[in-house]
Amino acid sequence: MGRINLSRWIGLATAGATAAGLVLVVRWLAFQQSRSNARQDAQFDVNTHESDKTLENVWVVFNPAKQSDTEQFQAHVEEVARSCNVSHIEWIETSEEDPGTGQAIEALTKGASLVIAAGGDGTVRAVAASLAHSGVPMGIIPAGTGNLLARNLNIPTDDLDEAIRIALGSTFIHGDLAWLRMEDPDEVGDLTAEGQLIREARERLDANGDTIAEDDEFAYTVIAGMGFDGETMANTDSGLKKKIGWIAYVISGVKALHGKRMKASLKLKDAVSADQSTVAPDLAEHPDAQADEGDRPDVEELSDVPARTIMVANCGELPYLVLVPDADPTDGLLDVVAVDVRAGLLGWADVAGKILAQGAGWTPLDLPASTGHMTARQCRDVKVDVDQPCIVQVDGDPVGTASTVHVRVDESAVDIAVPRQ
């Protein structure tokens, strides 16, 4: 029997893996391009409605730190607005103490017919929270690093004029908002919760309004997370973000790959049936799952769910990645995703492959021997308990360290301008 040429077999295996990877990447790029083309043709494919409200009192809440020349930016927005028959715009700046919540409340007290958030995801989140259930719609001019809600709503991040026209248009969605509360946090971050900012602004401006959130509730429009997700956001260098954009999150994420593995307990209210999960195995298949009969049980409890990170999504797309395919900002549901990784970098590579396959339009395989698992579940309300304190983030901003969080969906909370179908 001849000797085995080990180097030859290693070379063949490497070539095979490289070829498979290239096929996956090409497939992913082709799928992304086809979806991009479809979006350009169909624009936003969820239920939209046309508004007949006149734009006589338009306000822009803007983050001056996102503009190198604020006067030039304002002049450009006003020029495009005039082409949309909007003759005047009121401007109000955000601050380090208030990223836009109180400013949007002030706009409401002065009779705003439309409030536009011009900034990053933090500005968008703050304005959306203030406008919730006010009856006043919201526009978005993306000017941040991630611009995640804008991406999910097909608002261009590289065409300022078109983004302005969309913000001043008449096509809207009834967008959901999510609210997160940390229970007995070990550490509280520098950001003040939108619930508290709304109350303080109303008291300061003598403004009326229903109580839509408690003082310790943080609003978000895209995704919240704890564990690896929170570590990544907390450790992203702000200076690097300004230089290279969202890739700074990737660099921070690589540094957080060796984070601790958690055991989580989940309590889901109004959970969707298991067959609607897009990434197997579904959490409902966990041996400790308890649920009432019916497609949407009142309460479903799971214990000892292994995870490196747990995310609760209102939207599912990140730059160049589809993280949660079923997440829809208009469906009145939260998408809970637990990511578990074993075997270190091999497990993360397994998860990355599943995400790429998912983004390429394939259903990822999740075999018993897999070193990386992604499990998904939909509900209206979730309580997450983990066995160790970890960093919690909302829309990219770390808000503190806790072992328990509560998240609820606020269905159809705010009308948001989107591209016309």
TrEMBL record:
* Cofactor dependency: Mg(2+)
Q: Report the family membership.
A: Belongs to the diacylglycerol/lipid kinase family.
Task: Provide the transmembrane region boundaries.
Answer: 6-30
Regions of biased composition (Basic and acidic residues) lie at: 283-299
Q: Which UniProt keywords apply?
A: Kinase, Membrane, Transferase, Transmembrane, Transmembrane helix
The record ties this protein, via SUPFAM superfamilies, to: NAD kinase/diacylglycerol kinase-like
**Which intervals of the chain are annotated as region Disordered?**
277-300
Recorded hits in InterPro entries, A to Z, give: ATP-NAD_kinase_N (IPR017438), Diacylglycerol_kinase_cat_dom (IPR001206), Lipid_Phosphate_FormReg (IPR050187), NAD/diacylglycerol_kinase_sf (IPR016064)
Q: What is this protein called?
A: Diacylglycerol kinase family enzyme
Q: Does the keyword Membrane belong to this entry?
A: yes
Tell whether Lipid biosynthesis is among the UniProt keywords.
no
| One function term, GO molecular function aspect | kinase activity
- Signal peptide positions are none
Annotated DAGKc domain residues: 53-184
